[in-house]
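Researcher: I'd like a structural prediction for the single chain below. Treat it as a standalone chain; there are no partners to consider.
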Amino acid sequence: MAQLYPVAGAKIYIGPAVSSVPDDADIDVSTFSGITWTEIKGWQTMGAVGDTATLISEDVISSGRTLKGKGTRNAGSMQNNFIILPTDPGQIAMIAAEATDYNYPFKILFDDAPPVKTSTVTITIAAPGVISWAAHGLAAGTPVKFSTTGALPTGLTAGTTYYVVDPTDDAFSVAATAGGAAIETSGTQSGTHTAATVPSGGTKNFYALVMSAQENGGGANTARLLQGNLEINSPVIVVAPVGGE
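Model: Treating it as a single chain, here is the predicted structure.
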């Protein structure tokens, strides 16, 4: 059956200004790591986001047909509305951004995280430690946490997020960072250990110019809204939801 993906629950964030936007070939998900994000609260209407190609056409006399091709790509003008929240740090940041000529990183986080997947596991004392979880189905990079009724091996801490590395059908190791080195376990352990995924929703990341941050008008029964319109100035980097079934 088809799945619907509501806009409700999505959040938008703004980061600090950048002096220049990297070339398209140099932008990927890692470009947006380490940014201090500030949520722009009160998001009432989400505008469109994503590439559109410019149409190139030439009328050819001999064939009696217009030939068409794709030219440059444009990630669009994102028209957003927010309810007025005068003390919200995100709205204050967006208003300040409009007064500059700089680009700013933006993140959209959707409320589409998959359900948590959990199982009792066993962990070896080894270099690296191996977590046994039958038919886990977890891809490399999936975030997981551990809990225990006793003590985990040295090298792992309950409640800390780790990332799956070297997965096989029924086992995997974990690293402290996505794509990092597998963790060595040592010491002793006790109790029953449980692993659980740490789901996160899909995201879109991009750079944009803040073109307007103005209040709309209207009649007596119209709520004041802040119009925060963005000219997207980079590819839109899309990351699918991760961490669950």
